[in-house]
Structures are given as structure tokens and as C-alpha cells.
Design brief:
Blueprint: E1 7-11, H1 19-36, E2 39-43, H2 48-58, E3 62-65, H3 76-83, H4 93-100, H5 102-110, E4 129-133, E5 143-145, H6 148-157, E6 164-168, E7 172-180, E8 183-184, E9 188-191, H7 199-203, E10 209-211, H8 218-234, E11 240-248, E12 253-259, H9 269-276, H10 281-293
Parallel strand pairs: 1-2, 1-3
Antiparallel strand pairs: 4-5, 4-6, 7-8, 7-9, 7-11, 9-10, 11-12
Helix pairs in contact: 1-10, 3-4
Length: 295
């Protein structure tokens, strides 16, 4: 089907805590679709019933999902589109639901000998630890905790989340690997001036440094790429994903999480990695779209 006849539904916004980032991602993709000459319409699924009715009337050939967080990245929107028989970008509803749950993701990957941080319960905690909601993205609610007092503060801050992950804190280099339609792209190292790669450093800081390709020993680089590709395949990911690692001081890459709808803002990592592999932003958007159409 040529692009003149193709109808794209672009989905961004939504009702999650990452709505603001989703809108930034969506607007960047919208600009690319315009430049590429695709026919598209924007849909914001903040009101589910209206969304279902509107998208059903539009009858798109494919939906480009640019939603982050709950309702967009956790399999809910994917299940709706599957029910409506609309093709869409990215992983299916089952994979999306599994990857959104960081604890479940790591429990699965641990069985395949992919290194992941140790899990703790409140009873058997060994400091330092990282506390975070198990089902949020964009580093929302992440706390690095070194003692009992900090632990109590973190638990108080996270009291509205039902599913909290407590895992060992691994000091090391922050790395991320993007995979596009099964192709592993160059690894990025993230260096922050202070703290860690949290929401502020991720989206608003100009102090954060991105090194792509990351300067790694060949053997370590290959090992990370193998783990990333293996995780992508085990969990049956599709389209573009971003997999975050921490490389410990003794060069063991620990997989932290899998993002099934990576950000596509000017600060985002997937476009940076794709650029290092020779893709313009428009190329990247088109590759994601074609990946969904060629399923």
C-alpha cells in the first residue's frame, strides 16, 4: 500500500502520569509524519468511549502508539486495538503488560541467566537499595536508599503505589540499548552531573551527557547486545524498544527494565541511538510504521 492511501491514527496524550511526555513524543512523531507525507489523524484516548467511537469511525490502516505509562504502555490500549482489529506499532498487549511490570520482567529474565538486580522484601533488606513503583516509567518515584530513615521517607513518598519494587543498588555506569524491528542499535552511556538519571535529568536537564556509541570494551559491548536481543526475543517484543542496563564496577551488565514505547522527544535516547546508526528522525518513524504494517 503506498503512503498516499495509508491512513494513520496517531495516539498520544492519555491519562497516565506521563501524559506530558507522551504529548511531546506525539508532536515530534506528528511533525515527522507530516514531512513524510502520510495521511494521519490525532487521537487522545483520555476518554475511552469517545476514543473507541472516533477511531472506529476513522478506520485507520495502522495506529502509531505514542502513549507512555499506564493505559498506553501496559497493554490496555493494545488490547482495545486488537479487539477493534486495528494494526498498531510496538509490542502486543501481553508483552506490553509483562514489560510494564518491572518485577515480573526480571523474574522471567532471571530464568534465562540474564543478570538482573537482587530483589528484597522489607524483612530481608540489605542497604543500599533502590525503591521504585513496579509499574511506572520515566524514572517516576525512584529512590536510592542507604539507611532506615531514608527507607521510611521513601515508603512514605510511595504510599499511593500498590506495587513497590525493592532491589539492590548497583553502583556503575548507566547504559541503554535500543532495538528497532529486531536490529540492535549503538549503545548509549548516560552521564549525569548529579544524582542519577531521574525524571528531571531525563527531560529537563541540559547537564546530562549522552555518549553514543558508548566507550566499552568489545567483549562487554557484545555481551550487553546479546542480553538485550535475548530479552527482546524471550518477551516477544516488537517494533522499537529501549532496554536499560547498569554496568557494575566489575563489568557485569544488569538489566533494569524494558521500555516497549520509548520516548521520542528531543531529549530521548532512541532517536539518538538511531541517529548513530544512520537513521534520521523521519527514517526512524517510518521504520516503526513499516514494522507494524509488515507484521
Amino acid at each position: 500500500m503506498n503512503k498516499e492511501n495509508l491512513k494513520v491514527a496517531l495516539l498520544y496524550g492519555g491519562s497516565s502520569s506521563e501524559r506530558e511526555i507522551s504529548i511531546k513524543t506525539g508532536k515530534a512523531i506528528e511533525s515527522a509524519l507530516k514531512k513524510l507525507g502520510y495521511k494521519y489523524q490525532v487521537f487522545d484516548p483520555i476518554e475511552k468511549e469517545k476514543f473507541i467511537s472516533d477511531i472506529s469511525n476513522y478506520k485507520p490502516d495502522v495506529a502509531f502508539i505514542a502513549l507512555h505509562g499506564k493505559g498506553g504502555e501496559d497493554g490496555q490500549i493494545q488490547a482495545i486495538l486488537e479487539f477493534l482489529n486495528i494494526r498498531y506499532t510496538g509490542s502486543n498487549s501481553k508483552t506490553s503488560a509483562v514489560c510494564m511490570d518491572k518485577r515480573l520482567t526480571k523474574d522471567i529474565l532471571r530464568n534465562y541467566s540474564i543478570p538482573v538486580p537482587k530483589n528484597f522484601s522489607l524483612e530481608n533488606i540489605k542497604f543500599p537499595v533502590v525503591l521504585k513503583p513496579s509499574e511506572e516509567g520515566s524514572s517516576i518515584g525512584v529512590h536510592i536508599v542507604f539507611n532506615k530513615n531514608q527507607l521510611n521517607d521513601a515508603l512514605e513518598d510511595l504510599k499511593n503505589y500498590s506495587n513497590i519494587l525493592i532491589e539492590e543498588y548497583i553502583k556503575g555506569r548507566e547504559l541503554t540499548v535500543s532495538i528497532l524491528n529486531g536490529q540492535v542499535l549503538p549503545i548509549i552511556e548516560i552521564k549525569v552531573k548529579e544524582g542519577f538519571y531521574d525524571y528531571k535529568n531525563k527531560y529537563f536537564s541540559n547537564q546530562t551527557e549522552y555518549i553514543c556509541p558508548a566507550n566499552l570494551p568489545f567483549v562487554v559491548e557484545e555481551k550487553i547486545k546479546v542480553y538485550a536481543k535475548k530479552a527482546y526475543e524471550i518477551l516477544e517484543c516488537k517494533g522499537a524498544v529501549r532496554i536499560d542496563f547498569i554496568l557494575s564496577e566489575d563489568n557485569i551488565p544488569y538489566l533494569l527494565e524494558i521500555n516497549t514505547i520509548p520516548g521520542m522527544t528531543e531529549h530521548s535516547l532512541l532517536p539518538k541511538s538511531a541517529k548513530a546508526a544512520g537513521y534520521t528522525f523521519e527514517d526512524l518513524v517510518e521504520e516503526i510504521l513499516l514494522g507494524a504494517l509488515n507484521e
